[in-house]
Write the structure tokens for this entry.
Amino acid sequence: MADEPKQAQSHSGPPRREGGPGGGGPGGPGGRPRGKRQYFRKKKVCKFCVEKMDFIDYKRADILSQFVQERGKILPRRMTGVCSRHQRWLGVAIKRARNIALLPFAGSAAGTQAPRQVVPQAAHAAPAAPATPAVTSAATPAAAVEAPKA
């Protein structure tokens, strides 16, 4: 009978995880081990605010190309560090520069594909599907006979 209360206390099911809400897990009060150093990222500063630019000129493709990926996408603020006001102006300037062909709409995927070969027009024509031999032999002499009459 002394064994029955012990069986009642044990539960059936999956084992419980230690270190729940009050435990010393990664999100608990223990936190990180003291020996680890945290990575400190320097805050990015808006290039246009530093230079006190009121207007981003769409004709200066050398500046705008710094904010466009190789494939033609506009880089986001979190990567460039530009403030929200200048990011909006930058987007407008890049789109204007694309329209007058100072910047590409989509860059070539560099190194992914060889340039397309120019094929002459004669080789470009697709060969016709071969017909049955009986039809071609009958149609060929008739076409040859009618051509000289005309």
